[in-house]
Amino acid sequence: MQAILDTWRPRVLSILRMVTAFLFLQHGTQKLFGFPAPQRYEFDLFSLHGVAGTLELFGGLLILIGLFTRPVAFLLSGLMAFAYFIAHAPRDFWPMLNGGELATTWAFVFLYFAVAGGGAWSIDNLRHGRGRTPRS
After folding, report:
1. CA 72, CA 21: separation in Å to the nearest integer?
2. CB within 8 Å of 94: residues ≥ 6 apart
3. How many C-beta neighbours within 10 Å does residue 32 have?
4. In the 3-class helix/strand/coil scheme, how is the chain assigned residue by residue?
5. Is 66 exposed, middle or buried (0-12, 13-18, 19+ CB in 10 A)?
6. CA–CA gap between residue 20 and residue 46 (Å, rounded)
7. For 135, left (φ over 0), alpha (ψ -120 to 50), or beta?
8. Over the stretch 88-100, which tens digit does the pLDDT of each residue have?
9. What are the sequence ranges of the domains in the chain?
């Protein structure tokens, strides 16, 4: 059983990375393009929302494909921590009451990716030669 878990650990890490990125980049497309949900604020690239949307979109795409996973995830973790303390924490101490559960979760999931990397199914893994299947 342990061997099966060890075999699947890097693959499930990749699945978590891809699903997280897919959900995350939708916040960027919403801010920049009004898709899949309408924009909440008028778009201005040089506003906090514009910078956040740009990082969410391009950072989300890089995380999705697993390219530069560690540095991008570290940057996005900081973005989500910043978002939490700027937008949510002033409302209330408790994330359940201030609407900050998602920002908090993403901050820590991205921090995990910054440490763990992109997993087996990532461009980073291919670039470092770990994507090759050993031949017997």
Report:
1. 11
2. none
3. 18
4. CHHHHHHHHHHHHHHHHHHHHHHHHHHHHHHHHCCCCCCCCCCCCCCHHHHHHHHHHHHHHHHHHCCCHHHHHHHHHHHHHHHHHHHHCCCCCCHHHHCCHHHHHHHHHHHHHHHHCCCCCCHHHHHCCCCCCCCC
5. buried
6. 26
7. beta
8. 999 999 999 999 9
9. 2-127
Token pair, residue 26, equals 């939708």
Name the token pair of 20. 């997280």
Distance between CA atoms of residues 30 and 12, nearest Å: 28
pLDDT digits (tens, 9 = 90+) for 77-120: 999 999 999 999 999 999 999 999 999 999 999 999 999 999 99
pTM for this prediction: 0.91
Interval 16-45: pLDDT, tens: 999 999 999 999 999 999 999 999 888 899
